[in-house]
Design brief:
Oligomer: homodimer
Largest sheet of chain A: 2 strands, antiparallel
Number of helices of chain A: 9
CATH class of the domain at 65-196 in chain A: Mainly Alpha
CATH architecture of the domain at 65-196 in chain A: Orthogonal Bundle
Order of helices and strands of chain A: EEEEHHHHHHHHH
Shape of chain A: elongated
Strand order of the largest sheet of chain A: 1-4
Helix content of chain A: 55-70%
Number of strands of chain A: 4
Largest interface: A-B, 47 and 47 residues
Structural class of chain A: mainly alpha
DNA sequence: GTCTATAATTTGATAGAC
DNA sequence: GTCTATCAAATTATAGAC
């Protein structure tokens, strides 16, 4: 079985990498572990057990660990940007768009109980294989670009894309580390209040 | 050689854990690795090599890895709170205090090229040994409390302690992951602008 | 406090059969 | 695509000598 997905990004269609069902299962498990404990929290044997194959078979799908890491980050990036949708829809104002950005992050936190993948990996960027660090970098560049476009013609003093994204990422860490999800909501409230002006 | 340190916290003197010079060296190396790549980026052998002893000798100073992790976090917490100083000095206003908070974070980033320890560990809280996760939690509780006190009688709409801390933590991740230190400065600018009103 | 020696486990990775 | 078998390396940890 093959899963295909298309996402509209930067005014052109980008075809997602196509994965077999088993490869997608592996990516799911790997993403879960990475979002919980970082890049080193993923082991081929654990993944193999979770998806019901042997670790050598995981190497068939993803030859080296950096390949797996990069694939997880790229798929995650496409998923997030897909969930964000168009940043320049005519029928929306900046407030509605940023509200959606916050909601996407909020959902990830409350639904999975896990924080943003690139928040975890971004924090350990210095020790990541170049392949993976580069993919994480691209995640942020793309989400920053999305936010920049979304803010066009914003009325209030909403802040810059970096300021908004930083609040979201930091809010997640605070919520996770203190076990107080309300602290994330508090940062979202701040973002939206400033945007409303 | 023995290093002693006293810090004024929560209106009472708290004596720092006392470490021999070698134990302090180990903690230095461990902190560096953790801030670069997280808890798993620390290995007893690497630490031993760096401080010029054998890995079994590291176990003499810190029996188990969680003991080492907890010690690193506690010492880091005391250092940061020591650098922050009193949050209720009469001769200062809220702006000056929060400016100092931002400067402490900024210095860590530019001086060591490493982000906040509890930013990295906080992101992987879910997979940390309880001992370590608890120490990280206490770091945030204490810095949040410091910020709350520092903001007393603030004039502008500076935001809550959680909003300010989230911006700082997230700004660090953004700066590190995109290799653009300016993005951290941008978040600091936002924090201080809002505080100035 | 530091060492040697070693155990026990985990991990990333490969060769080759089916 | 998945398996068995295996390897080399790394890791946490302990026992006991100096």
């Amino acid at each position: 079985m093959v899963v295909n997905a298309y996402l509209l990004i930067d005014n052109k269609f980008m075809e997602n990498q196509t994965y077999t069902a088993k490869a997608a299962e592996i990516l799911d498990a790997a993403e879960r572990h990475m979002r919980a404990g970082g890049y080193d929290a993923v082991s081929f044997r654990d993944l193999a057990d979770e998806v019901g194959i042997k670790s050598s078979s995981v190497h068939y799908h993803f030859p080296q660990k950096p390949d797996l890491g990069e694939a997880v980050v790229r798929r995650y990036t496409d998923t997030v940007l897909g969930a964000l949708g168009a940043p320049d829809d005519a029928g929306e104002d900046a407030y509605a768009r940023i509200e959606r950005l916050c909601a996407v992050y909020r959902t990830a936190l409350s639904q999975d109980g896990l924080i943003c993948l690139c928040c975890v990996l971004g924090a350990e960027t210095r020790d990541l294989p170049d392949q993976v660090a580069s993919a994480v970098n691209q995640f942020f560049e793309r989400v920053l670009a999305w936010t920049g476009t979304a803010l066009k013609n914003a009325t209030g003093q909403g802040g810059t894309p970096a300021q908004i994204l930083a609040s979201l990422q930091g809010g997640m860490i605070l919520a996770m580390a203190t076990k107080q999800p309300a602290l994330f909501d508090e940062t979202v409230t701040g973002i939206l209040e400033r945007l409303a002006g």
